[in-house]
Design goal:
Oligomer: single chain
Number of helices: 2
Largest sheet: 6 strands, antiparallel, barrel
CATH superfamily: Trypsin-like serine proteases
Number of strands: 16
Distance between the termini: 19 Å
Radius of gyration: 17 Å
CATH topology: Thrombin, subunit H
Length: about 290
Amino acid sequence: MRFLIFFFVVFICKKGSGTIYQCNTNASCGCSTSFTLVSRIVGGETAGRQSWSWAISLRSNGKHICGGSILSPSFIITAAHCFNDITNLTNITILAGSLSVTPSLNGSSQVRSVAQLYKHSDYDSSLFINDLALLRLSSPLNMGHGNIKSVCLPSDTVSQPSDNINMIAVGWGTTSALSSTVSSILLQVTVQSIASTYSGCKDLISDSKLQFCAGIITGGKDTCQGDSGGPLMAFANNVWQLYGITSYGYLCALPGYPGVYTRVSFYIEWIKSIMSFDEITTTTVSKSINPTTT
């Protein structure tokens, strides 16, 4: 799981030192109730309340193990490697609608068990190729609450992201590669997409069609252990689109070693086929999709 799987360092955001993203509130996805404020400071920072309403905590026996994103009331997308050591779904739940890593006492957060796991059939646990999975929840999330929304998927006609664009990752992962304690609060960090020809990226990825690198060449910003499966997003067409799924990297935030992310745009057909396949309860799907269920 990420030869240490992903991190944020938290600093105080000063007034006037950040960028405000105001999304299209009429959009069906990719727009939370609150605007998003992202500082220009080094490292990461605490996420604003209801800024990332699709971010979920994936849990085993009530403890956070990975992140994920809401695609619909019944489906979550995350990393396949989060389930490498899980043999059944009995003790697996997701926490939605919470800024804290623990469920809220006022009833604003929602917890669901997982009814079905769909790992990509070509997932390779040694190379982290095709590192994505869909989860069907035991019962749909109540999307009427302002703190629970879905993220938008990118188009499958363009390989996203292009190089050198700003993106934001969020998660409850550790704040140090040497720490085993996850963050108690959701954190966000701004990183840039990095060309696959860059030496630090070329040494890490196995297939640039399926994966891409993001981070800061000089280090200091990254995802880390516990952030796996969480979203890496870009602001496009006035909504937040899911460009990457946090996958792996070499330690956390080291200069010259960006993080590696699953390229979501490559898998749009697979994602939509799984969701359609499940929702209409058919018994077969296209052979090119061939989902693996657990």
